Amino acid sequence: MQAKRSADPIITRPGPSRRFCVAPMMDWTDRHYRYFARLVSRHALLYTEMVTSGAVLKGDRERLLGFDVAEHPLALQLGGSNASELAQCATIAEEYGYAEVNLNVGCPSDRVQNNLIGACLMAHPHLVAEAVAAMRDACSLPVTVKHRIGINGRDSYEQLGDFVETVHKAGCETFIVHARIAILEGLSPKENREIPPLRYEVVHQLKRDFPQLEIIINGGLVDIETIRTELELVDGTMVGREAYHNPYLLADVDRLLFGDDAPVLSRLDVLRAMRPYIARHLASGGQMHHVTRHMLGLFQGLPGARHFRRQLSSEIHRRQDPLGLFDELISEMSARLEQRDCPA
Ligand SMILES: Cc1cc2nc3c(=O)[nH]c(=O)nc-3n(C[C@H](O)[C@H](O)[C@H](O)COP(=O)(O)O)c2cc1C
After folding, report:
1. Which of 90, 92, 213, 240 is deepest in the core (most CB within 10 A)?
2. Which one of 21, 89, 107, 172 is the catalytic residue?
3. Mutate to test the pocket of ligand 1, among 18, 25, 128 (most ligand atoms within 8 A of CB)
4. Domain region containing 122
């Protein structure tokens, strides 16, 4: 019978627990989404969008890296392959107070491939190893790698094992594995998240072959029951699209995956708690939809979900007083849910 390692509630590793992570997603997991997600789960480990090393070193650093302490535990995902640049970024990540620094070896986009960033690096394990070693030397944060199970032309299990072993020797202990290959020519990034089949068994095999490593499984996980089953085979889970489109999924994470029975905010309380955050954002010159575009799926599956989504995606642009609309929505959603006697 298979030993149940990771079903134990607490993994005794330094750094944040990765039993449940919300994936890095460009344009989606910005600081507004993360603030919102954190209201629903205290324990989920959140990741930033990928930030390239060049952008960190030459761009508007505060805009790219700034976050609210309430977002913790929070990991920074970097894109790049230049070891010395990535090392500087790792130092900066530590100064900013991130809990982990992660290297993206999974993004299949042409744009990043041309700069030797993302999934194409799976063909260059020694380059990734060099980068990881430099990042580890430059900071005391856990340095983790997020990658695919392969890329076209390099998709055997042996090659995957070689990649993991080489990068592990450079000091990486945690591998976040998107359980499908990336096809580097001919598919868009979106297609590369849908067309190559999911192969969880490859990730399970990796855990069996490298039991000392922390292996986090990613790709296509959409419900807590499956996640619990996966946690019997690997050390942690990462959820992307479902955590974005159906954010209240996170409401079960603390209790069912971390054994924390503290009360969870209802959906309406999440809305109420977002109000002062939105008001601050407006006062600093921002627009309400920057924040609320991430909240459209909050009521998914409940009465009024479509109304909520429509008001926040189109009506919002017609209103002079966006906060007034937000207040009306709180009252409307509250009435709709009470009428149907639904848990808010
Ligand atoms: C809009 C979008 C943007 C993404 N951006 C990134 C990124 O910046 N870095 C990264 O490693 N993966 C990125 N991904 C991939 C996700 O992190 C994740 O690996 C993938 O969506 C599979 O997980 P899921 O099936 O739970 O969504 C992105 C995915 C989406 C949908």
Report:
1. 90
2. 107
3. 25
4. 20-258
